[in-house]
Specification:
The complex is a heterodimer of chains A (about 475) and B (about 150).
Chain A: E1 7-10, E2 13-16, E3 26-29, H1 32-37, H2 40-49, E4 55-69, E5 71-79, E6 86-87, E7 99-108, H3 109-114, H4 116-126, H5 141-157, H6 185-191, E8 204-213, H7 216-222, E9 228-235, H8 238-258, E10 271-272, H9 276-310, E11 317-323, E12 325-334, E13 337-346, E14 349-350, H10 361-364, E15 369-372, E16 380-385, H11 389-393, E17 396-397, H12 407-413, H13 416-425, E18 429-431, H14 435-440, H15 449-458, E19 462-475
Chain B: E1 7-10, E2 13-18, E3 24-30, H1 33-48, E4 57-65, H2 68-86, E5 88-99, E6 105-115, E7 129-130, E8 136-139, E9 145-152
Antiparallel strand pairs in B: 1-2, 2-3, 3-9, 4-6, 5-6, 7-9, 8-9
Helix pairs in contact in B: 1-2
Classes of the chains: A alpha+beta (about 475), B alpha+beta (about 150).
Family (chain B): Belongs to the archease family.
InterPro entries (chain B): Archease, Archease_dom, Archease_dom_sf
Keywords (chain B): Calcium, Metal-binding, tRNA processing
């Protein structure tokens, strides 16, 4: 993207001035290099989102943004129902509530080095990763209903997880307002054998070491110390979420037309929040959030089983679990007034600052952990929500490094075997069913995650707490 | 549009995968609308694997939509659904499209393929759903058809 198309507000804030049908400006948070690296389509998609009815304040773009479908990935937009505000399936994404959880292992890098190969092999054997892999969990009709209502709370009741996990999962592990009656038979069918699976593409389970601490006080509050080892899982709502996204993208097109909404492009298909389609989507999308929360809880349980077998006596305590493809009803102060808004975050993480009432007591003083997944070679970050994030972008931050090149470009440049060998020489063990998948996800195919989180910090979205480097990557 | 990493073609018909930041753009072309749709579905298999897929089983599907472009999305999503719930990959398609007297189009098809073999097919990623982004079904001046859209992977 050419920065001259934007108004530069400060070092990390840029505006797309409202023109034509745009109701609000586009507001991008990134440094100049990241802006230059963004596809022009991000500009186009942001400007299009700004035309939607009921949008409040701006169409926001996080530092890791890239070209998506409908909304850009790394897009945040809030809508007011009383102003005809809309909800959009493309504004949430197909992998509803895709997210990241990190768990403390209580182990150090030295402990892992003693058993790195058997640990990697045991994780590969236990964690269903990649297309076609199964966990052996098959849900009956009754179980499916209970899971869609109960999320991680259901998983814990079923014996996959620990009750103390729940306060460290957004929504206490269970998204309220889920209506499984809005989830189609086809979406359920797609999920029947997919509970407890990682999926593919950029999904992973990693064993990671704390490499660098940026904020001692918050790191201590989060339980992060140099050389401490964590397990991080990145995955979402699997086939159920994909099918719900697919079906509602289709159903929202006529709904937009019936409501008299002029869409600049069909990819922006949306429905008024207060319409029948909008309400059905909310009921289904919240059910899919529960599916994702349950799925990550189950995978966390599998990881616990493996660690208990390889390191007898070890326990895995949840640091936090965040979702980055959601639409949630939240109260935000706009022009001095509290407003009830439907906040879409697509490839963006909620990032509540210190003192937020929705945070568990143990974290309220410091703020919400914001877990940022990097590539399998470069590392990940733990950030903390900043108080300034509330007025910057409805308490939102980036979600990952963001791709720097397409899958096909990555395939032309790297070979899976060479990537794995190179990472092994650097002390990182990669396990995957697909060499092509490894090449498509090669570390060099991603933007520099350090640059992305630094931009997020400079923009006041969140602050850096710790940098993590991978030791083992089970690639989906 | 020449920047593709995978493609296949036979007798004036073919498919390709084109670059997109995070997802993938599938593109199929052929002498008829049906052939272009068949090729676009072959591109979906190309998203998942480079390995050969054998036509061991056949199944019938159908879908409909108000226009040709929406029909393409419905068609690809129908194939994605069958891939997901049956755990199959497909290597061949026979598509028939008719325009409906009440408006819109109806598609019926036979899909040929086999169950996914994680070792032999080494699936790279899965197609989550077809989108309306970069959605285009068009006829060239020479009379051939092409069909493309972004698929979330």
């Amino acid at each position: 993207m050419d920065p001259s198309r934007l108004t530069r507000v400060d070092e990390t804030t840029w505006r797309i001035e409202p023109t034509g049908l745009m109701r609000v400006p586009g507001i991008l948070y990134a440094d100049e290099a990241l802006i230059r690296g963004m596809d022009d389509k991000v500009y186009e998609q942001t400007a299009n989102v700004a035309t939607l009815p009921g949008i409040v304040q701006g169409a926001f773009v996080m530092p890791d943004a890239h070209w998506g479908y409908g909304f850009p990935i790394g897009g945040v937009a809030a809508f007011a129902p009383e102003e005809g505000g809309v909800i959009s399936a493309g504004g949430v994404g197909f992998d509803i509530s895709c997210g990241v959880r990190s768990m403390h292992t209580g182990l150090t890098v030295a402990d892992i080095r003693k058993a790195q190969v058997p640990l990697a092999d045991a994780l590969l054997a236990r964690i269903p990763a990649g297309l076609g892999s199964q966990s052996g969990i098959s849900l009956s009709r009754h179980d499916m209903e209970a899971m869609l209502h109960g999320g991680a709370v259901w998983a814990v009741k079923e014996g996959w997880g620990e009750s103390k996990d729940l306060e460290r999962i957004e929504e206490g592990g269970r998204m309220a307002g889920a209506d499984p009656g809005c989830v189609s038979a086809r979406a359920r069918q797609r999920q029947r054998r997919e509970m407890g699976t990682l999926g593919s593409g950029n999904h992973y389970l990693e064993v990671q070491a704390v490499e660098e601490i940026f904020d001692d006080r918050v790191a201590t509050a989060f339980g992060l110390a140099p050389d401490a080892v964590l397990v991080t899982i990145h995955c979402g709502s699997r086939g159920l979420g994909h099918q719900i996204g697919t079906e509602f993208l289709r159903d929202m097109l006529p709904a937009a037309s019936a409501a008299g909404i002029r869409l600049p492009d069909r990819e922006l298909a949306c429905a008024p929040i207060d319409s029948p389609v909008g309400q059905r989507y909310l009921g289904a999308m919240r059910s899919a959030i529960n599916c994702a929360l349950a799925n990550r809880e189950i995978l966390g349980h599998f990881a616990r089983e493996v660690f208990a077998a390889v390191f007898p006596g070890s326990t895995l305590d949840l640091l936090f679990d965040v979702s980055h493809n959601t639409c949630k009803v939240e109260t935000h102060v706009v022009d001095g007034q509290p407003r009830r808004l439907f906040v879409h975050r697509k490839g963006a993480t909620r990032a509540f600052g210190p003192g937020h009432a929705d945070l568990p007591e143990a974290l309220r003083r410091v703020g919400q952990p914001v877990l940022i997944g990097g590539s399998m070679g470069t590392g990940s970050h733990v950030l903390v929500g900043a108080g300034s994030g509330e007025e910057r972008a409805f308490s939102s931050a980036c979600h990952g490094a963001g791709r720097a090149m397409s899958r096909h470009a990555a395939l032309r440049r790297w070979q899976g075997r060479a990537v794995i060998d190179d990472l092994r020489r650097r002390g990182i063990l990669v396990r995957s069913a697909s060499l092509r998948g490894v090449a498509e996800e090669a570390p060099g195919a991603y933007k520099d995650v350090d640059q992305v989180v630094l931009a997020a910090e400079r923009a006041g979205l969140a602050r850096r707490v710790a940098r993590l480097r991978p030791l083992i990557c089970i690639k989906g | 549009m020449t920047d593709c990493h995978a493609k296949g073609s036979v007798q004036g018909a073919g498919w390709s995968l084109l670059p997109h930041d995070a997802d993938v753009l599938v593109n199929g072309w052929g002498a008829t609308l049906e052939a272009a749709f068949e090729q676009a579905a072959l591109a979906l298999t190309g998203v998942v694997t480079d390995a050969l897929v054998a036509p061991r089983q056949a199944l019938s599907v159908s879908c409909s939509a108000p226009d040709r472009e929406l029909l393409l999305v419905e068609w690809l999503n129908t194939v994605i659904y069958e891939m997901a719930v049956r755990g199959m990959l497909f290597c061949g398609f026979q598509v028939a499209i008719e325009s409906l007297p009440v408006g819109g189009y109806h598609l019926s098809a036979t899909l040929f393929g086999e169950p996914l073999d994680r070792v032999r097919h080494a699936p790279a990623c899965e197609a989550k759903g077809a989108t309306y982004t970069a959605l285009q079904v068009s006829r060239s001046a020479a009379g051939g058809w092409s069909a493309s859209c972004v698929v979330d992977v």
